[in-house]
Amino acid sequence: MTKKALITGITGQDGSYLADYLLSLGYEVHGLVRRVALEAPETRFSRITHLLDRVTLHPTSLESYASIFHVFSKHDFDECYHLAAQSFVAESFADGFSTMNMNINGTHYVLAALRELRPRCRFYFAGSSEMFGNVNEVPQNESTSFQPRSPYGISKVAGFHLTRNYREAYGLFCVSGILFNHESPRRGFEFVTRKTTSTVARIKLGLANELRIGNLDAKRDWGHAKDYVRAMHAMLQQAQPDDFVIATGQTHSVREFCEIAFAEVDLDYREFVKVDERYYRPAEVDLLIGDASKARRVLGWEPTYTFRELVKEMVASDLAELRSESAGGDFSRKGAKVQSSTNHV
């Protein structure tokens, strides 16, 4: 019998890769999208354009319990992947109220609707390494205490505890994936990784002359989103629900990322990167590195991309995209977005 999965945040990086993966496994895939997205599908659906004819989309507001309840009342899903969130850390400092409202209430609404209507549906919550924050041990695993340093991190800790509470109090199959940074050519331009690779491509093609960035010494455990969505799926296939850290176990600085990205186009990052303190966080998280030994042991999960391969793929993709736009006379407005974006890691 064909399994039926629902993905909130299907238009994002992780949602699009997860949809690809589930479709390859023979799933019937549904996604929740904001109603406003239907008014601008060419931009809002850019990551899932290639699979729009194979997924079913439901206009829904995560800030409305009635809206979510309606979807679950009409469809019986086997699995629900809750990926939608306000996920930009800097934006969470600028507008903590919206971040809390969407990330905490949205998660609670989905869980409550599942409990009421589809208690057999397995639920995945997208946690984050930002929950660890000001860490007291390195590397971080499932037992490491949470000390978040941003409204975003705080909202994810709340979602994690909501998920665990529904598992323990109501017997639902609910799990949280504590995913460390994962990137790809589909990453948003506001994140430091894509901001870097897209600007590298623009500099190489003569469309920009500098990259303004924040803390070059911040270190992260960076993997590829394609690898991480496989782990999400594996968590929901287990006999018992449990939480898992997903990470490569290796850490690299923003400076290293820049060095490799510029070297890919035969440039020296030191000639183009300008440190701009406007892009520093009010409360920085300096070092995050994950211990995914439990996921390796229980899920049989391993990352397949190296850090260097990830950076190379992102640079190559941004170069190809810009060259295509140039050939068609369509210089994207993305460049302006890249130049003005904040420094999310």
Explain what the structure shows.
It is a single chain. The chain has about 350 residues and is of the alpha/beta class. It folds into 2 domains: about 5-180 and about 225-245, NAD(P)-binding Rossmann-like Domain (Rossmann fold); about 190-220 and about 250-285 and about 305-340, UDP-galactose 4-epimerase, domain 1. Helices cover about 40% and strands about 15% of the residues. The chain contains 12 helices and 13 strands. It has helices at about 15-25, 40-45, 65-75, 90-95, 95-115, 150-170, 190-205, 225-235, 255-265, 295-300, 305-325, 335-340; strands spanning about 5-10, 30-35, 55-60, 80, 120-130, 175-180, 180-185, 210-215, 220, 225, 245, 250-255, 275. A 7-stranded parallel beta sheet has the order 3-2-1-4-5-6-11, with helices on both faces. The protein has a two-stranded parallel ribbon with strand order 7-10. The protein has a two-stranded parallel ribbon with strand order 8-13. The radius of gyration is 20 Å and the shape is globular. The N and C termini lie far apart (about 40 Å). Residues about 330-345 have low confidence and may be disordered.
What's this entry about, in short?
The protein has 345 residues and is of the alpha/beta class. The protein has helices at residues 13-24, 41-44, 65-74, 89-94, 96-117, 151-170, 192-204, 225-235, 254-263, 293-298, 307-327, 334-340, and strands at 4-8, 28-33, 55-59, 79-82, 122-128, 174-179, 182-183, 211-213, 219-220, 223-224, 244-246, 252-253, 273-275.
